[in-house]
Specification:
It contains twelve helices and 14 strands. It has helices at 10-16, 42-47, 117-130, 175-179, 182-195, 220-239, 285-305, 359-376, 399-407, 410-416, 418-436, 441-447, and strands at 23-29, 35-41, 51-54, 78-83, 89-90, 98-106, 133-147, 199-204, 210-215, 243-246, 262-268, 327-329, 336-338, 348-350. The strands form two sheets. Strands 7, 8, 9, 10, 11, 12, 13 and 14 form an eight-stranded mixed β-sheet that branches. Strands 1, 2, 3, 4, 5 and 6 form a six-stranded mixed β-sheet that branches. It is globular, with a radius of gyration of 22 Å. The chain starts with 9 loop residues before the first helix and ends with a helix.
Length: 451
């Protein structure tokens, strides 16, 4: 084994042990969370000291178009890619022995590229560290298994289960519903084990073919990496069994949407204790300040938590998705939920983020709200103890409005960085403009002959 392989995590070393390593995938997550990069023979990876990609990958829209560069001329200078060997993991679905390695994006002076999502998350964590805090997150991943859809003009439908019937909705927590596509679940477990990932639990959600995977709490960057990898491994597992896995926020009409609920806590670096609980186990002022920051600033980052036009189809009443910024203890109708826990595990769950968001940006945006709340020192509104679905809708109803709120919130722009905000807005406004040029079946059905 060459020297660089000694830097690999144990799971990656175990995967290649006794086998010839064929290929390395050098990857970076773009604004959408799509893996961009290049693959190369492992022998070349071992010899090559520097890797390059143009910084324009962060201006590419989800449709493959290019947004206008708001930071200057569109010259596409090269970035330097620096491998983070702690992220090396298997690609167990490939025909040959392949490892994936996430790279950090730097400019040619070695400065982190400010609009690279992984770098943005590190920027937010550094703000916490400057205060003597360490943020902790625990994500929940919801997604749908669906029948193969090769014609975008056709509706998405649930997959066929082992019973010969299509997956049924309204079967939340049903074990037999999970068993319907057990072979996909088996491959998800096998791939995750090969990649060194620990799954805290898998369950059937309320939608037809909708699954939830829970991950253990931990470092936001590490968990951002895991979700980035999980999305790929889940898609690969589904393809092995003649179906698709989708992380769209609302893929099937009449079914619930898919969220990425984010649980947050904050640890004091000196004491190692959760700052949300005092010595007697009671809630602290910091806990309330964090909630107040979420209530105050979440509207300004909805564009990051709900990044596509489809995302806003999830924010509707009676479909298990929040439509408000209320908070409550053990209340799933609120946008901000405080789960039942021991004092050491006291946390705030942000239920607004969609599973279609980039995990690095979702964590960064949510933690930025809490950070500003801790700095502001304000108190939240009174706890909602009833049905928060009856409350007024407090969220923007479309991507354009969400981007306008981000543009009009200087405090959040200062935390995220003006350069990131400009690039993000450029990409998203380009996507929104493209969407508005598409005429939907609803418009043809109801407007063609009636208006």
């Amino acid at each position: 084994m060459s020297d660089w392989t000694q830097k690999l995590p144990e799971a990656a070393r175990d995967y290649i042990a006794g086998r010839r390593l064929d290929e390395i995938e050098c990857i970076v997550g773009d604004i959408a969370g799509v893996a961009r990069g290049k693959a190369m023979p492992a022998s070349k990876f071992a010899r090559q000291p520097t890797f390059f990609l143009p910084n324009s990958i962060f201006l590419q829209t989800i449709t493959g178009e290019w947004a206008e560069n708001p930071t200057g001329a569109f010259t596409e200078p090269d970035m330097i890619l620096v491998p983070d060997f702690t992220t090396a993991t298997a690609a167990p679905w490939t025909a040959d022995v392949t490892l994936q390695v996430i790279h950090d994006a730097q400019d040619q002076q070695g400065v982190p590229v400010p609009f690279a999502p992984r770098n943005l998350l590190r920027r937010i964590i550094a703000l916490y560290e400057a205060e003597g805090w360490t943020p902790i997150v625990a994500p929940e991943m919801e997604f749908f298994l669906v029948a193969r859809n090769i014609d975008p003009n056709q509706p998405i439908i649930p997959p066929m289960g082992r019973s010969g019937r299509r997956a049924a909705g309204k079967q939340a927590y049903s074990m037999s519903a999970v068993d319907e596509y057990g072979k996909v679940i088996d491959d998800i477990y096998d791939f995750a084990e090969a990649q060194g990932f620990e799954i805290d639990g898998i369950l059937q959600e309320g939608g037809a073919g909708q699954i939830e995977i829970n991950l253990n709490h931990g470092d936001p960057v590490k968990l951002g990496d895991e979700i980035f990898y999980f999305k790929r491994l889940i898609r690969e597992a589904a393809l092995r069994h003649d179906c698709f896995a989708t992380f769209m926020a609302k893929p099937i009409e009449g079914e619930p949407g898919s969220a990425m609920h984010i649980h947050h806590s904050v640890v004091d670096n000196k004491t190692g204790k959760n700052i949300f609980s005092d010595k007697k186990g009671a809630e602290t002022e910091a806990f309330m300040h964090f909630i107040a920051g979420m209530q105050t600033y979440l509207p300004s980052v909805i564009a990051l938590l709900a990044p596509y036009v489809n995302s806003y189809r999830r924010y509707v009443p009676d479909f298990a998705a929040p439509i408000n910024l209320e908070w409550g203890r053990d209340n799933r109708t609120t946008g901000l939920r405080v789960p039942i826990s021991e004092p050491a595990a006291r946390r705030v769950e942000n239920r607004l983020a969609g599973m279609d968001c980039n995990p690095y940006l979702g964590f960064a945006a949510s933690l930025a709200c809490g950070y500003l709340g801790l700095k502001d020192g304000k108190l939240p509104r009174a706890e909602c103890t009833g049905d928060a679905y009856m409350s007024a809708d407090e969220l923007p109803t479309n991507l354009g409005d969400a981007l306008d709120i981000l543009a009009a919130t200087p405090a959040m722009r200062a935390v995220l960085g003006e350069e990131f905000c400009k690039v993000y807005e450029s990409v998203k406004r380009n996507e929104y403009k493209e969407f508005l040029q598409v005429i939907s079946p609803w418009e043809r059905e109801h407007l063609l002959l009636n208006v």
